[in-house]
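Minutes, project huddle
Topic: does the predicted pose make sense with adenosine-5'-diphosphate bound?
PN asked that the exact inputs be recorded in the minutes so nobody has to dig through chat later. Recorded below.
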Amino acid sequence: MTDSLSLLAPAKLNLFLHITGRRPDGYHNLQTLFQILDWGDTLTFTPNHSGEITLSGSTFDIAPENNLIHRSAALLQEGDLGVDVHVSKRIPQGGGLGGGSSNAATTLLALNQLWAREQSIEQLQQLGASLGADVPVFVAGHTAWAEGVGDILEAVQLPQSWYVVVAPDCHVSTAEIFSHQQLTRDTSPITIAAFFEGHSRNDCQDLVRNLYPEVDNALKILEKIGSARLTGTGACVFARFAEEAEAREALGRLPTGLNAFMATGVNRSPTFEGLVNN
Ligand SMILES: C[C@@](CO)(OP(=O)(O)O)[C@H](O)COP(=O)(O)OP(=O)(O)OC[C@H]1O[C@@H](n2ccc(N)nc2=O)[C@H](O)[C@@H]1O
Ligand SMILES: Nc1ncnc2c1ncn2[C@@H]1O[C@H](COP(=O)(O)OP(=O)(O)O)[C@@H](O)[C@H]1O
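Predicted holo structure (tokens), as shared on screen:
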């Protein structure tokens, strides 16, 4: 049991985000379209029989036991199964790109294989949902339309797209935005067809840009080169392009010093390219 497995834990964008209501437990009902990207963190898993879960590489300042990689590994662990996970981070933290959730999902998928735990995708989604609202979509591994609290998923095929993403130098707390008095919480549900006709927005965007000048600034810069929008509760903002060359040219026109990157939208998560039963 010494072979290592390296997997890409991709980022996602919320192409739109409508908040359609608030549930009695305080969580919000949403409609969103999760676009998975061919860009993200790389996690390398080396299993062992020490019974220990260790993390190395870029782990931010998160205490190991709070790291979602550690927490998801612990959910699958039994007996003397152990693993060292090496983390190579690219996804900014608290950026609305789902980095933590994607790391958790990739860990569940990797260890299910390496530790021969034989859990179904549905079982892994259930385990993952206890760690974060966006874990199930990364476990399913499809670009998806989501409803409920983001747990009712329907795979969607999107036309090939390229995205320019700007990461402002700030973290937005999802809990802060969802508990804010000024958040729009009563958007009427739309159909998938209405989204494709252009009837969508991000209900958090006005509030987040008011609270975080860095986000407002990033949106203003990106609005000059395309149709700019916030992903999730932020802080990252993105613009979509139908041609790779257009996106590349737009990226090149951004002011220097801005933390920005370009990524391809994919219908299937790149994590699965490295798994046996994909
Ligand atoms: C809204 C999204 C869209 O992708 O925002 P981002 O976090 O990606 O920006 C996500 O579903 C977020 O997922 P995640 O960041 O995992 O949220 P969680 O840790 O489960 O929840 C953080 C807090 O946000 C609030 N919350 C979250 C999801 C939801 N549907 N309703 C809520 O009210 C709750 O107060 C919760 O305590
Ligand atoms: N392996 C991890 N990678 C990124 N964030 C993590 C990880 N483990 C725990 N977290 C925590 O998860 C939270 C959400 O991070 P992330 O998923 O990147 O942002 P968002 O929810 O905005 O998309 C952060 O507060 C971060 O501290």
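Observations noted during the meeting:
- The mean pLDDT is 96.
- The two ends are 21 Å apart (CA to CA).
No decisions taken; revisit at the next huddle.
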